[in-house]
């Protein structure tokens, strides 16, 4: 099974130039929409056309999976919550469901590695790789074959979405203890010490924080040996959900589809995706800055400036979808505002 | 004509408490929606009910007016642009029109003091006070009677909106050179030096910046003598648009209707409104942090933390409406997310 991605194209330079020029013709002082102007230009470049189209089908895919390390007390919630939350996504009761509805996006949830006996609909489990993962502080998370399967899944999911008309993608996460492997991956790929990446996750107390710090320290020791090889890294300290998400983010770039990144877990997947498919990050913007300390390392490493900074730490794609209306405004102002000439407004 | 506002009630403490408690029952780690949780609690308190209602009619009112000081070269645009932009709002081509459509809000534009021969529809000019204003660096902006008329207009506009079903309000501005009187008002009410408040407005060059700095210095000298009296301050260095906006913001609080503040000009009006109606600021949140340096003084003075920081400096209400989807998400997550009990999710 191949884990190679084709060469990633850059967003369209001509559309980028046209968008920059078009902004100067619109009825507002030059540059006065600040970051929204940059985002509009980025959307035009990703779409390869100026003015950009309004998004027809913004889409959140939630990658759910359990993590063996949850058994070692690194989360405030028991592992059974992962499967319970998958059910909650399916009935529309989670934060991402409500927020996506406001932003005009739809939500798809996929069980990549949930450790549950619950019977989810076939479309939820169609890409399932396994139940849970090895506890990354002591054993490999996955086998090589499982990594390959997860990468194939992530790639197929992105293809399904783009073929289905999705023109803006968000990768959300759901998995109790998933900030532990995510933090290890970020530390490994940014060359950071364990203490720089240990966060409070779902809101752990000091005892759990110490257990998590130990797990991250031990996992990072194992991860550093393989950090130059993204497949080996996913096998050693990843998980089916994170591996699939990384491939999804890489494949979105292959398919020239813009992505809004969420927080810590999507950030860890993004770092791996940039290793799998260098240049993919040009197709991404960072929706927000998470409370999790390791997320700052992701933003720095990928050279991304977050749109929002609202002390979010929920995951599910919420920090990305919170930024979607702003990206939509950015695209639509560039496309729909009057020009000075059309409106008969004197230029400054 | 009275410029007294009734006592401003505080948002409902009981609904506030219920909202804080409800957040703990929703299917997410406690506090994980960060600022969105605080905003949801604020909406519930303003509405006096938990769960809060979704906004039925969010509304932007753009207060347009010219400023005599524009004749002294303090803006990058000629004064005729104010009237031209009013026409642009009416045909839907301005940034605020496009952004409000994304956010689910409607826009009303009012000519309070535009210096134009253009014939606007009657509903646009219904509250017009005068054409332009005195150049605030040397003469009074308005007469006392004009201040009274503008305050009555702002109050009536807020009443019309709330009576018409508006349940969230934004005050936008349009007026070439309006950052000059706004900056003077902010300096006067925050006890700041001129150099601390002089910004680039629509994007002025260094020559215009120096002219603007002189105008602000001279205007501030005049303003300081009357800064303890909001009516005298509006007369001396305000304008019909800013005076009406101040009354609108105060009356919104009287009518217990939440407001998202925009940037510099709405900030200046907000400082005056808080003088006219102490406590009104509890009914406001700051949509964003403007590029304009004086806006930071407004946020500090009113003790408001901006939701966004996107280098916006357009006005029209754009920085407020950019934040509206987040306030909507805040209200709707609080109202619509499943509880742990309902969703059968184990609590942490």
UniProtKB/TrEMBL annotation, chains A, B:
The gene is cobT. Belongs to the CobT family. It comes from Actinokineospora terrae. It is an enzyme of class 2 (transferase). It catalyses: 5,6-dimethylbenzimidazole + nicotinate beta-D-ribonucleotide = alpha-ribazole 5'-phosphate + nicotinate + H(+). One of its GO terms (biological process) is cobalamin biosynthetic process. Signal peptide: none annotated. InterPro entries: Nict_dMeBzImd_PRibTrfase, Nict_dMeBzImd_PRibTrfase_bact, Nict_dMeBzImd_PRibTrfase_N, Nict_dMeBzImd_PRibTrfase_sf. Catalyzes the synthesis of alpha-ribazole-5'-phosphate from nicotinate mononucleotide (NAMN) and 5,6-dimethylbenzimidazole (DMB). One of its GO terms (molecular function) is nicotinate-nucleotide-dimethylbenzimidazole phosphoribosyltransferase activity. The active site is at 316 (proton acceptor). Keywords: Cobalamin biosynthesis, Glycosyltransferase, Transferase. NCBIfam families: cobT_DBIPRT, PRK00105.1. Pathway: Nucleoside biosynthesis; alpha-ribazole biosynthesis; alpha-ribazole from 5,6-dimethylbenzimidazole: step 1/2. Its EC number is 2.4.2.21. This is Nicotinate-nucleotide--dimethylbenzimidazole phosphoribosyltransferase. The keyword Signal does not apply. Pfam families: DBI_PRT.
